[in-house]
Model the fold of this input.
Amino acid sequence: MKRIVLFIATNLAIMLVLGISASLLGVNRYLTANGLNLGMLLGFAALMGFGGAFISLWLSKPIAKWSTGARVIEQPANSTELWLMNTIAAQARKAGIKMPEVAIYPGEPNAFATGATKNASLVAVSTGLLESMTHEEIEAVLAHEVAHIANGDMVTLTLIQGVVNTFVIFLARVVAYFVDQFFRRDEESSGPGIAFTVTAVICDLVFGLLASIIVAWFSRQREYRADRGSAQILGTPRPMIAALRRLGGIEQAGVQSSLPKNLAASGIAGGGVLSLFASHPSCEDRIAALQHAGLRTA
Done:
C-alpha cells in the first residue's frame, strides 16, 4: 500500500509541476483559432516528455529508498556489511567512479543501481540475494550494478524515455486534432471537442505501448553490457555466469521480484511476460552472450 500511495503521489506532483510550467511558458496553448500550432505542440510535448523523465531521475534515489525500505549503510554493523562496503569501494575505484551509497533492503533475491549521476549513485542489494548466493556470485552482481553506473545507464535510459515520451505526446495530439476536425467538420464553433480528448487519451495509451517496446529493447541491451562490465571488473565472466544460473533457478522456482514497478528495469533480474516488453533478457540468453563475448572464462 505504501508503494502505491508513493507512486500515485509522486506522479501527481510531477504532473502538477509540469502543468504549471507549461502554463507559465505558454506551450499548452498549441490549439489556436487558426488550427494546430505544431511548434508550440512540440514544445509542450518536449516539456512533458523530458521533464517527467528527468524529474523522475532526480528523485530516483530517495524514491528507491522509500519504496523498498532500503537502509543505507553509514557504518558497517557486521562483517557482511563491511564486506559489501569494501567490495563496492574496490569495484568503484576500478570502474573510475566515486563510491556509491550502499544499501540493503528486505525482499527476494535482487539488486539495483540508481541515481542522477555517476558520482551520486546508490547500489542496493536485497536480503534474499545475500542469503541465497555465494560471495563470488554476490560480487559479480555488485560489479554488474557498478558497471551500470559507470556506463551512465540511468541517464541514457532517461534520455531515451524522454525522446519516446515526446513523440508519443506530439503524435497523439496531432492525430487527435485531425480526428476532432473530421467529426466537427460541419460545426461552426471553434476549439477542441470531446473527440480530441478521447482520441488523445487512446493514442497516448496505444503509442505509449508501442514506445515501451523501444525502451525495453534498450534496457535489454544495457543488461548485456553491464554483464560484460561485471566480467571486465572481475577479470573473468565466470562469477557472473554462476550468478545468472542461480537467478535463473530462482525464477524457474516461481519466486517473484519484490522490486516496485518503477525500479524493475534497474534490478539484476526481472523482465516481462512477452519478450518484446521485457526489461531484461532471459538468464539463458545473458549466459550465452557472456560465453560468446570472447572474455576469459577460467
The first helix runs from residue 2 to 25. The longest strand covers residues 111-117.
